[in-house]
Amino acid sequence: MDQTALDNLLQPKTVAVVGASAQPGKIGYTVIENLLEGGYNGKIYPINPTATEILGLKVFPTIADVPGKVDLAVITVPVKFVAQVSKECGEKGIKALSVITSGFSEVGRKDLEDELVDIAHQYGMCVLGPNIVGTLSNSDKLNASFAPFLPFPGKATLITQSGALLIAMDAITYTRKVGFDKMISIGNMADVDFADLITWLDKDDNTSCICLYIEGFKDGRKFIEASRNTKKPIIALKAGVSAHGAAAAASHTGSLAGAVKVYGAAFQQAGVVQASDLNNLFDRTLALSLQPPLRKENLLVITNGGGVGVLATDAAERFGVPLHFAPQDVQDELKKHMPEFGSAKNPVDLTGMAGNDWYYKSVKFAYAHLWTDGLAVLYCETAMTNPVEIAQAIKKAIEETGITDKPVVVSMVGGTRCDEAMQWLVEHGIPAYTAPDKAMNGMAALREYNNIRQSINGTNEAKIPGSAKKAHEIIAKARGEGRTALTEIEAKKLFASYGLPVTEINLAKSEEEAVSLAHETGFPIVMKVVSPDIIHKSDAGGVKVNIKDEAGVRSTYQTILANCKAYNANADIRGVAVQEMAPLGTEVIIGSINDPTFGPTVMFGLGGIFVEVLKDVIFRVAPVTKGQAEQMINEIRSVAILAGARGEAPRDRAALADLVCSYAAMIYDLRDEVAETDANPVLVYEEGKGLKVVDARIILKKK
Amino acid sequence: MDQTALDNLLQPKTVAVVGASAQPGKIGYTVIENLLEGGYNGKIYPINPTATEILGLKVFPTIADVPGKVDLAVITVPVKFVAQVSKECGEKGIKALSVITSGFSEVGRKDLEDELVDIAHQYGMCVLGPNIVGTLSNSDKLNASFAPFLPFPGKATLITQSGALLIAMDAITYTRKVGFDKMISIGNMADVDFADLITWLDKDDNTSCICLYIEGFKDGRKFIEASRNTKKPIIALKAGVSAHGAAAAASHTGSLAGAVKVYGAAFQQAGVVQASDLNNLFDRTLALSLQPPLRKENLLVITNGGGVGVLATDAAERFGVPLHFAPQDVQDELKKHMPEFGSAKNPVDLTGMAGNDWYYKSVKFAYAHLWTDGLAVLYCETAMTNPVEIAQAIKKAIEETGITDKPVVVSMVGGTRCDEAMQWLVEHGIPAYTAPDKAMNGMAALREYNNIRQSINGTNEAKIPGSAKKAHEIIAKARGEGRTALTEIEAKKLFASYGLPVTEINLAKSEEEAVSLAHETGFPIVMKVVSPDIIHKSDAGGVKVNIKDEAGVRSTYQTILANCKAYNANADIRGVAVQEMAPLGTEVIIGSINDPTFGPTVMFGLGGIFVEVLKDVIFRVAPVTKGQAEQMINEIRSVAILAGARGEAPRDRAALADLVCSYAAMIYDLRDEVAETDANPVLVYEEGKGLKVVDARIILKKK
């Protein structure tokens, strides 16, 4: 995306409103009115073929009539005129269109949207929308939208796929006193998408945090790439996470909702912090836009009320923020600023007797202490204290330490005086919340942001030279035979070419060949029918394990053939595979899908009941780093099994992480060919003893 | 608890303030000031030995000097005078003391608290506190506390163990416009406890919902009993649910925090709805105090914005509220009140074009329809509509149906106009929320309340005549031998006396006896050492399974003796148990503890890794009804295993529920004797084939 085009879109020096109207109530009137009321300093050109003046501004019949350069054209004409006026904008040399007009893909007219984008690209223009509310920017005093006013000022920028929510959130900023610098309605994303805006906002001095409301999008890879490369915190609320909700989102935006678990994985990999609902989004955005990340884990909580202290502690556990007791020297010092019955542990309870001075001294000492990595200051309204003074004492204490790289959050539980104090704190850069759990949620976001950014460092070089060539040969052969399912032998060869440790397997076309292969492999062995027509080999009596000698091989060969012919008389039986029998180990499963939004995506879980009954599986978009592979393994609920449950030795998790990396590299390499795969089971042995892929399945994309 | 004493405490016609002060800033002054400012209509008697007038009221030197009857004495004197003034109150014939004074068990002076209660009981007085803020009641215009003002009026009553939170929440009611009729600070609960107040509030016409902030209490059974017998919804926020938080709560209140899981189970059994944090408590209280329960599951969502519709749907799933598409006739009618691109499914999306009329007609039709069991109406602020008018249209539509037994909640996302509209709705009995997920949370509380009340109906008659007598004989024998651990044989006999199906087990004191018992039992059998000195029988080589014939019995008998002597030469070996070998089945575990707050408590889970690694277990306070036993089984995360995972037939869940019932009845019966027990494993067979308790363990209380 051309950055100059985006500069014109988001920081225009001149704006034309194509479809401007002299009639109050019309969107073409509202946009002009909003530009004026917002205090926009640039030139505004209303375009309308019949009117001569709108709200005191001179009207031009067509865009061609405007003298001089126009940076941005806001288009509000009916849908049938959009193509024509876009051409005229292109001819005029405009680089950015903000298309408020609706009636495109959201009502099934994708063709009109494609036409619009084609025209725009012919002239080197970018298109925001169509079907949007517009753009709002406090720092540019620009309200180029039909939302009624610029938001309460703040340091975050919101990009939203729901225009209705933009208007509602715009109003909410004034009641919550949590603001935005910019609010951007992204609409149908025919051209400019989340990734483009994220990249541009990363360089915007007025945006410290990027806040996303997402219903669904198409190019997941581009989103991940742009987000990873951003230096600023990004927080996303993904709507449509329920089965019912995903359906509603799809019908609403016309875009694919995508599997929820895959979106969650992609946010992780993109370094994007998540919010679960609107309040959560506001609470987390406030912290991320004002405070540095929580880099280590010593969070100290200072409170004047045992009750809110306990609630904060409960919330910390719920949000995964660990709390530790402060070291003795910290406790000794803090003990000086509280009565006998206070507590200097963590939470530090100054008690209801705490006034400005105790808060000031405790906060200053604790915040400056080397042990402390972050601070949560809680206050419960009392009759004897003034919340505004407490807020000022907290701010003064923080400021005087000169420290700026440790996060601090505040919660004040009480009435209007607390609200006033909290607004003052936010204005002075300290996030403040009406409840202790909200403050803890803000701190949790700062912690997650730190951890998530660390986890995406690292490389994913798991490639073996020549792998892809071998794999494509195997695939070409299957395609040559008109197949999209590889046989187990082919799949294992393909896996092996990427360095995955598979059980040795070879095709015997006769009893004699089976005997000879069995001797080569070494007893005991497993024998399995090989037939493209028999998918469920066990059901057909086509699998026998633990065959210990030559006689067993001979009788099994005949039994399997007989069983399979009885099961399906017309099956194309190509022989019997002779396979190394892997020692017993802990069963895990690795698989992949080709997600419509994010492409090749790897899945990991424990085998058996864990995957079948508990659905305890973790996804990541391929490829993955070693760190991400380790994270996947640690995220399954049943991870304790791998740590060595019930007296067993710990399993070889290092080998497992390597396997996940290589597997992800493989499916990424083969993303244009492979639809889905699995290695199930993989048997994992104790530490240092590796693992074995026992069964393999690869389904190719239909071409 | 004497109800007249509580009447005097909570609805006094005359109040004496013992420790009244003429000095502003003193609590004894503040209470007088608050009583006057709150507009209390009864008589106020300040008691102070030196002052003559306080705030225009005549002061009496002692309580004895007051002419006529005094209902309530609020005590604010220093702790050292409390016993003396309490006696004087008793002599005066007062029935209720509200002891604001602190310095009792919360600082380690339990003795002073006991003395206070002893005095009170001698005179038939009840004591609220000590260490409290006081009591506040809007309907009585009574602010007998040092909290600065009566709360914003509402229909719920709050009882809180944290005085600091009471003061803060009092202030919050004005910013949130969510009020209370009464706020009661319960303090150290030396006498009047949650159960007493719940029972009294059940008859209070001004309380429609009882809201609890709980840190911990002692008599769990009394709480459950009182809550179960209440006709009004009760909602509880239990603080101190984290390990760290439980410690903080314990130090804060001096009462036992109790195991979090057991509190959760007890709330279920008490019919108490839970809240996870302060906001949650407010949101759920609002719905429970204004609306009837959601009795069935057809919840319809009507919205003017796809975005908030999707967020509501996501929240519904998160809170366990199912959403179904509306039937065709409902969709057909609703389609009339929306544009072409709207949706009449569920959520019903009237689109941003929806004005008062569409809201009015859709809500009226949908709410009146037989299909609909509950309604959530969402509104996202638009430039074209007036939230107050939308609110009025919704209220009018609801009212005109004449229906009052279906719940309705509203969410309005937007600015100050929305806040105003929502306040109007709340004043008119309809809970309204700033975000769709909050409205859904309110509806979820109404649904949980319905379900939880239904689940506690039913009886728990699982007793077999004579069980207790047999059990006490077995226990007496063990105690006679100075033991607190029963042998497996004793434990199984005890279980069997309560009708639990145990594997047959008998003690053989010789090889010959073992052979004869084996023949009686029938092969195959299991043999286990019997010795009070060998706890871990397998480790000692004291257990052998699947013994198939007489020769096996003989050799095993000798082997076990030899192994165990080698393991512990000094062990008192009483012989070898000969046990029926149960067929393989699905392993479950049932056990019990004697919780310090709730007493005998039963635990259920799947065996093996599920209990050991996943900690997937459910608790209930004994005894339990059949319905509760079924609920326990359904609450384990791995319940699919019992439904017949991986091609197995479904397990006999009816037999399992019976077992849990009988087990709970047993431990309740034996609550004075038994400390902890388990049946591990219990093998469960397919439906109709029952189950077997394979191993049994009973530890007696130390006496």
Summed up:
The structure is a homodimer of 703-residue chains. Helices cover 39% and strands 21% of the residues of chain A.
What tags apply to this protein structure?
23 helices, homodimer, alpha/beta, 29 strands, seven-stranded mixed β-sheet, flat, 703 residues
Produce the secondary structure layout.
The structure is a homodimer of 703-residue chains.
Chain A: H1 3-10, E1 14-18, H2 27-38, E2 43-47, E3 53-54, E4 57-58, E5 72-75, H3 79-92, E6 96-99, H4 110-122, E7 126-128, E8 134-137, E9 142-145, E10 153-160, H5 163-176, E11 180-185, H6 194-201, E12 209-214, H7 220-228, E13 234-238, H8 243-253, H9 260-270, E14 273-275, H10 278-290, E15 299-303, H11 306-318, H12 328-334, E16 348-349, H13 356-368, E17 374-380, H14 387-401, E18 408-413, H15 416-427, E19 432-433, H16 436-455, H17 467-480, H18 488-497, E20 505-508, H19 511-521, E21 525-530, E22 543-547, H20 550-567, E23 575-580, E24 586-595, E25 599-606, H21 609-612, E26 617-621, H22 626-635, H23 653-669, E27 674-684, E28 691-693, E29 696-700
Parallel strand pairs in A: 1-2, 1-5, 5-6, 6-7, 10-11, 10-12, 12-13, 13-14, 15-16, 15-17, 17-18, 18-19
Antiparallel strand pairs in A: 3-4, 8-9, 8-11, 20-23, 21-22, 21-23, 24-25, 24-27, 25-26, 27-28, 27-29
Helix pairs in contact in A: 3-4, 6-7, 7-9, 10-16, 11-16, 13-14, 14-15, 17-18, 19-20, 22-23
Question: Overview of this structure, please?
Answer:
Two copies of one chain form a homodimer. With 703 residues, chain A is α/β, with parallel strands linked by helices. In chain A, 39% of the residues lie in helices and 21% in strands. The first copy, chain A, contains 23 helices and 29 strands. A seven-stranded mixed sheet of chain A has the order 9-8-11-10-12-13-14, sandwiched between helices. In chain A, strands 24, 25, 26, 27, 28 and 29 form a six-stranded antiparallel sheet that branches. In chain A, helix 15 links the parallel strand 18 and strand 19. In chain A, helix 13 runs parallel beside helix 14. The first copy, chain A, is flat and about 95 Å long. Chain A starts with a helix and ends with a strand. About 1% of the residues of chain A have low confidence.
